């Protein structure tokens, strides 16, 4: 609270000594002038700006995966509602194709011969560009793995009578061949959830659900919607667990 106000007063004293004499008592002016000359100004943070360790790492492109960088197009940003010129990077592979929009300040260097991609930003001093550097790297690396190897998610149903099956209902499908996950979780009726497009669901065991696809964000979002029906209980340990999720059991409250 004091530092910005003091800096403003000192700047006014340097520009106009008469104004300072009017705004400050006469016995405080020498103290402020001495403090201005003896105390050097320094930034709030003493740490130096370093490039992103994740963002500066080259991304290896496996055989069969191709990157296509499109021309900048003006689109409305969903977070700031501003029109920003973004480029679209198309990642195509043996399992499918995905499109990734990158900010205009993120530069992508695609080495076709070495099959590597390197990301850089225009200005390292800006916090937003440093944040999006590593985020864009993670999205691009995840897309490359998705179109080449694919992503999976395993849901474990823990509880007495918890069961899952896969069914197809042509009358309610949103797209041709849509699958439906039917869950029995102790309610008076089964829970039916439509599998999103691009995701394949299977039940290797009655208490296991396997989700497969190329877009990990869609897979984990659908897994979170399934988990929401039976969140793991910390007292009984029952519920729906995603992948290697574990919880710490609590002791029962004894009166």
From TrEMBL:
<keyword id="KW-0687">Ribonucleoprotein</keyword>
<dbReference type="InterPro" id="IPR000702">
    <property type="entry name" value="Ribosomal_uL6-like"/>
</dbReference>
<dbReference type="InterPro" id="IPR019906">
    <property type="entry name" value="Ribosomal_uL6_bac-type"/>
</dbReference>
<keyword id="KW-0496">Mitochondrion</keyword>
<comment type="function">
    <text>Component of the mitochondrial ribosome (mitoribosome), a dedicated translation machinery responsible for the synthesis of mitochondrial genome-encoded proteins, including at least some of the essential transmembrane subunits of the mitochondrial respiratory chain. The mitoribosomes are attached to the mitochondrial inner membrane and translation products are cotranslationally integrated into the membrane.</text>
</comment>
<dbReference type="GO" id="GO:0019843">
    <property type="term" value="F:rRNA binding"/>
</dbReference>
<dbReference type="InterPro" id="IPR020040">
    <property type="entry name" value="Ribosomal_uL6_a/b-dom"/>
</dbReference>
<dbReference type="GO" id="GO:0005762">
    <property type="term" value="C:mitochondrial large ribosomal subunit"/>
</dbReference>
<dbReference type="InterPro" id="IPR036789">
    <property type="entry name" value="Ribosomal_uL6-like_a/b-dom_sf"/>
</dbReference>
<dbReference type="GO" id="GO:0003735">
    <property type="term" value="F:structural constituent of ribosome"/>
</dbReference>
<dbReference type="Pfam" id="PF00347">
    <property type="entry name" value="Ribosomal_L6"/>
</dbReference>
<keyword id="KW-0689">Ribosomal protein</keyword>
<feature type="domain" description="Large ribosomal subunit protein uL6 alpha-beta">
    <location>
        <begin position="158"/>
        <end position="240"/>
    </location>
</feature>
<dbReference type="InterPro" id="IPR002358">
    <property type="entry name" value="Ribosomal_uL6_CS"/>
</dbReference>
<protein>
    <recommendedName>
        <fullName>Large ribosomal subunit protein uL6m</fullName>
    </recommendedName>
</protein>
<dbReference type="GO" id="GO:0006412">
    <property type="term" value="P:translation"/>
</dbReference>
<comment type="similarity">
    <text>Belongs to the universal ribosomal protein uL6 family.</text>
</comment>
């Amino acid at each position: 609270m004091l530092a910005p106000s003091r800096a403003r007063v000192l700047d006014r004293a340097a520009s106009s000594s008469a104004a300072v004499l009017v705004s400050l008592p006469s016995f405080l002016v020498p103290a402020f002038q001495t403090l201005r000359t003896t105390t050097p100004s320094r930034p709030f943070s003493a740490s130096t700006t370093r490039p992103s360790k994740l963002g500066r790492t080259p991304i290896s492109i496996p055989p069969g995966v191709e990157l296509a960088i499109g021309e900048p197009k003006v689109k409305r940003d969903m977070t700031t509602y501003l029109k920003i010129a973004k480029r679209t990077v198309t990642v195509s592979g043996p399992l499918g194709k995905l499109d990734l929009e990158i900010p205009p300040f993120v530069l992508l260097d695609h080495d076709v011969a070495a099959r590597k991609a390197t990301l850089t930003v225009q200005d390292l001093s800006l916090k937003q560009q440093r944040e999006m550097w590593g985020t864009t790297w993670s999205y691009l690396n995840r897309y490359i793995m998705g179109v080449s190897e694919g992503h999976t998610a395993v849901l474990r149903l823990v509880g007495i009578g918890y069961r899952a099956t896969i069914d197809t209902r042509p009358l309610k499908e949103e797209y041709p061949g849509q699958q439906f996950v039917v869950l029995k979780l102790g309610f008076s009726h089964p829970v039916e959830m439509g599998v999103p497009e691009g995701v394949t669901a299977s039940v290797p065991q009655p208490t296991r659900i396997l989700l497969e696809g190329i877009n990990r964000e869609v897979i984990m979002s659908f897994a979170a919607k399934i988990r929401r029906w039976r969140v793991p209980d910390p007292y009984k340990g029952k519920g729906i667990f995603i992948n290697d999720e574990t919880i710490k059991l609590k002791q029962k409250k004894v009166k």
